[in-house]
């Protein structure tokens, strides 16, 4: 019996076609480059730094606004306290109390009431001081007369033992208020124009001398 050799060519397994697998999808060329990832990393770091800087700036701005708000409240309270002290403080009452008492005791029989006279006295002083500070000479004279009349009322209505001191306080306060009233104002510079005229015939005389 002759040996049979199987070359495997006609086997059923070999006769069937080999299955093919789908081709693998490849990434774009730019996505596989190293410099693309480097640029992406740098942009990411810059975005993080920019966000942190903006957050820090926002915190600084909000903190500054809060500080200014608190400072404004403190300054407002101090301003109101100072204004209240100037309006109703002991120095002011040393002058205004005798003046009010003088108006109350001497306004009887007058068409104007004591309250109206007090407001007139106050408004007159304010107008004279403002006009005198702007350089009006008549207002400066009126301010001096207003201060003298105020000192006379303080002398008349103050207690007999304290008249001298009350008048001295009045003079001191009026002197402080008179500083802007009597401040020297700058005068506008004056421009002087000099016109030189030549006598008639001067040109002809010069031409004859030149000849």
Could you write a compact summary of the structure shown?
The protein has 211 residues and is an all-alpha fold. 69% of the residues lie in helices and 0% in strands. The longest helix is centred in the N-terminal third of the chain and has 55 residues, at 34-88.
What report would you give on this structure?
The chain has 211 residues and is mostly helical. It is 69% helix and 0% strand. The protein is built from seven helices and no strands.
Descriptive keywords:
211 residues; mainly alpha; 7 helices; 69% helix
Layout of strands and helices, then pairs:
Elements (H helix, E strand, L loop, with lengths): L11 H4 L18 H55 L1 H17 L7 H20 L3 H21 L5 H19 L20 H9 L1
Helix pairs in contact: 2-3, 3-4, 3-5, 4-5, 4-6, 5-6
